[in-house]
Amino acid sequence: MDFNLQAYQADHLLHLSAKPERRLSIQENAHHRWLEIDGVVQSAMSLAEPAALCLPHQQCIADLLPATASRVLELGLGGGDLTRHLGVRWPEARHDCVDLDEEVLTLFQTFFRHPAEPVDRALHLHHADALAFLLAHDDTYDFVLLDLFSQDGNPLLLFQAPLYQALAKCLRGTLIVNLLPRTHLELAQARRLAEEWIGLTSAHGVPGYRNVILHATNLTP
Fold first, then answer.
1. Measured between alpha carbons, how far is 116 from 94 in angstroms, rounded to an integer?
2. Do the Cβ atoms of 11 and 97 come closer than 8 Å?
3. Residue, of 111 and 20, whose pLDDT is higher
4. What pLDDT was estimated at residue 60?
5. Is the pLDDT reported for residue 27 higher than 90?
6. From CA 116, how far away is CA 29, in angstroms rounded?
7. DSSP code of 198?
8. The model's pTM
9. Rounded Cα–Cα distance for residues 1 and 80 (Å)
10. Residues 6+ away with beta carbon under 8 Å from 124
11. Angle 56-64/81-89 helices, nearest 10 degrees?
12. What residues are paired with 137 via a beta bridge?
C-alpha cells in the first residue's frame, strides 16, 4: 500500500484551489488519493485500505505508538492519514483533531474520512490555532500527535517553549512530533524543549527523508 513519492502519477484531479499563500490539490489514481500543498504531497490514502499508512514517516510513527489510548489529540490534520489509522486502532477513543486551515478540515470530511467509519465514533474536528486550542481547553490526553507545517517547513511554534508548556499541562502519556528540521539547531531545540517540559525524548530518523520523529513520555500524575 506504500505510495511511491518518486514515481506517482494522477489520473484524476478532484479538487484544486489556488490562493496567494498556497496552492492545494487533491488527486487520485487507481490505487491512491492524495493531498498536495504547493506541490508537496502531505498525505496519501489507499483506496483499497483507507486505514493503511502509505508514507515512510507514518510507518515510523506507527512503530512508536503506545499500546492503547482513550483520549487522542492531533495538532495538524492534513489528509487525516493518522486519523483514519488511529480510528481503526483505537475505535473507542475520543479523538480531537485541530487544524488552522478551514479548507483542509472541509476537504478531509469530503475526500479523506474513512468510508467505513462508525457514525458514533467520537471524532471531533476543530478549526483553531494549535496553541490557542491548548490554552482554551483543560482536557487531558494520553496521546498527542504534533504534526504542524507551514510553507517553509515547521512553524516557529514548534521551537518555542509556550507550546511544550501547554502540552505538559494536558498530556499524561505519549507525545509524538513529526519534524522536518532545516538545521541541526532546530532539531536540538525541539528535542530540548520536549525533554524539559514533557519527559525523556528520543529522536528517530526516517531513512532517505528529512523527517525526524520525536517521541516523549509524560508520566507526571
1. 17
2. no
3. 111
4. 95
5. yes
6. 20
7. T
8. 0.94
9. 16
10. 94, 95, 96, 97
11. 30
12. none
